[in-house]
Each structure stands twice: as C-alpha cells, then as structure tokens.
Amino acid sequence: MPLYEYYCPTCKLKFEALADLADHDKPAECPNCSNEAPRVISPTTFILKGNGWGRDCYSSGPDKSCKRGANKKDVEKAIKGK
Ligand SMILES: [Zn+2]
To answer: How far is ligand 1, taken at its centre, from the CA of residue 14, in Å?
Structure first.
C-alpha cells in the first residue's frame, strides 16, 4: 500500500498514513485529534521522476498514455538540432 501525506487543519498536524489506492483521495483520521485530515499532494513525489513528464504519466496511470517516449525523442531532436 502506498504511503500518503495528510494535514490536519484542526491541530495543524502533518502525518503520513498508508491507504488503499481506492481511498487515496479520501481524508484520513488525524491521530492527534481524530478529526478529518485531507490528503496533501507532496510535490517531492514528482521531482524524483524528473523532466516534467512524470506528472502526466502518474495521473493517467502507468504505461497507458505515457508521453515518455515522444518527449525523449523531442529532447534528442532538440539536442541534435543545436
Ligand atoms: Zn488533528
């Protein structure tokens, strides 16, 4: 199960919790005050994938409409054209 980051607006607590993929956009229960804490989308998750296409691939699912190959060709083209 993936680890997600949550932020409790009631007690300003940031915490991580494991959640099913189906529940990934549902709020979690704050371990401190038991109120609902919405999920935080951490930008660091995407930085690891690099080059900007990671975000698109991630949102459209793995290897579905991923533009990785096309973008890589474009980059090579740009480098050769210089
Ligand atoms: Zn809380």
So the answer is: 9
Ligand 1 mean position, distance from CA 22 (Å): 23
Q: What is the pTM of this model?
A: 0.49
Q: How far is the CA of 46 from the centre of ligand 1 (A)?
A: 26
Distance from the alpha carbon of residue 29 to the mean position of ligand 1, in angstroms: 8
Amino acid (1-letter code) at residue 34: S
Lowest mean pLDDT among 3-17, 26-40, 51-65: 51-65
Provide the β-strand partners of residue 28: 37
pLDDT tens for 32-62 read: 999 999 998 766 555 455 555 555 555 555 5
- Alpha-carbon distance of 66 to 60, in angstroms, equals 7
